Amino acid sequence: MRQAELERLVRSAIDAHLGRVNPLQTIPESARAAVLVKPGQLELRRFPLRQPLEGEILIQVEACGICGTDVHCYNGDPFGLCPVVLGHEGTGIVVALGKNVREDSVGHPIKVGDRIVTSVMKVSDACVIAKYNPTKANLCDDLQVYGLLADEPDRPGEPGSGHHFNGYFGDYLMVRAGSTFFISNDLPLELRVLMEPAVVCVHALERSRRAAANLLNFRSRVIVQGCGPIGQLMIAAVRSAGVNNIIAIDGSPARLAMAKRMGADHLLNFKELGGNEGVVEAVNSLTKGLGAHFGFQCTGLPKAAANLFNLIRRGGGICEVGHFVDNGECQVNPHRDFCRKEITLVGSWVYNSFEYPNTYHFLAMARRIGLPLAELITHRFPLDRIGEAFETAKGQQGIKVMVEP
Fold first, then answer.
1. Which CATH number does the domain housing residue 167 bear?
2. Do 395 and 283 belong to one domain?
3. 150: which DSSP letter?
């Protein structure tokens, strides 16, 4: 037996004895990861797989959803990350724990076999925003998220020394030391996959509540514009928060039908209404000619973002949720849209890790009131068909596409 193989077996036996690895599951010497090598080209590659170092966790990926941001990366690599293993809407099973990993980010004891979700990684100590206002750490320029970390090649002569398992589109993910993560054993797989996009919506809702508290209550008329995955979860979050009059706007009958099941009271198909002017007339007819109290803009379309200002009443508010990448500019009128209406405009960017527990309770509430969140996942693909999965998501077929290694 080679010396290296003997050392590996001894380490595995010690880790199993200490409860850091499942003795019934052998960690393979290598595993697959789907690497985006350039826009439109994914390659399934195999990399060496090592034991976790101090503070790290090795998880076996169960599933990961394809986010709109993943699709933008697939289309054009807007962040300059290639080569990169994408995937941040994921969940996995703890396979091995590095030294000194004893509990998750809210103090729950962790063990091999637990199901976890990850949040943002810690920001650098040099970040002035996080240093003086930790609740705004999500605005750091160096914010790091799994699935949006460039591949780090192995150092010469040191196989396994690099970081390749940085995203959930692979067999495994290595959770780095200092990361935030949460045990979610009692949530079904689908809701664990939806946890990350759900926290985006919870962050947007909480930002809006703080900025415009009197505009979001039981009697509010609220618009959710765009019924993709984020829009659907936004409707569910607003409904779970007690809003009783929600207007959903989209151009897809299937997505509007799902929006109804998520809690929308009124469905407006802008294609059937003849475009923006018809949408304005329809909203006015539902709001006594005044417009909605508040609107969540969940599309990535500048033209739609501009029209939302025409749907909000004087004294109302808007939260921009949909433009996570630069899709261009839109024209608004500062006098008519901002000043004269005295509008409250709220920006929402990503989330903070401490919002995950709140999101967990949102998902629990949504289940309790019968919202079929798991049905938002409409397509499932194995890892070796990830190219087909991305093309499905790119073509906006269904709602949420999920990859299961």
1. 3.90.180.10
2. no
3. B
CA atoms of 232 and 65, how far apart (whole Å): 15
Model confidence at 85: pLDDT above 90: yes
Domain range for 40: 3-185+372-404
Pairwise CA distance, residues 340 & 68, whole Å: 34
> What are the φ/ψ torsions at residue 152 (nearest 5 degrees)?
-115, 110
Phi/psi at 387 (5° precision):
-60, -40
C-alpha distances out from residue 208 to 125, 136, 363, Å? 29, 15, 19
The radius of gyration computed from the CA coordinates of the chain, to the nearest angstrom, equals 22
Q: Which of 320, 300, 250 is nearest to 279 (CA)?
A: 250
Residue with tokens 């499905």: 392
181 and 225 belong to one structural domain: no
pLDDT at 80 (0 to 100): 92
Burial of 167-184, coded b for 16+ CB within 10 Å and e otherwise, reads bbbbbbbbbbbebbbbbb
Judge if 10 and 113 occupy the same domain.
yes
Indicate if 207 and 75 belong to the same structural domain.
no
Inform me whether the pLDDT recorded for 24 exceeds 50.
no
Placement of tokens 């949040």 in the chain? 119
What residues pair up with 91 in beta bridges, in sequence order?
A: 63
The pTM of this model reads 0.90
DSSP 201-249: HHHHHHHHHHHSGGGSSTT-EEEEE--SHHHHHHHHHHHHTT--EEEEE
What the block records as the tokens of 167 is 């995203």
Residue closest to 212 by CA, chosen among 323, 325, 295, 324: 295
CA quadruple 309, 313, 314, 318: dihedral sign: negative
Do 169 and 222 lie in one domain? The reply is: no
> What is the pLDDT, as a whole number, of residue 12?
52
- CATH number of the domain enclosing 281: 3.40.50.720
Domain count, the chain: 2
CB contact set of 180 (below 8 Å; sequence gap of 6+): 105, 118, 119, 120, 121, 122, 353, 356
Which of 233-237, 322-326, 365-369 comes out lowest in average pLDDT? 322-326
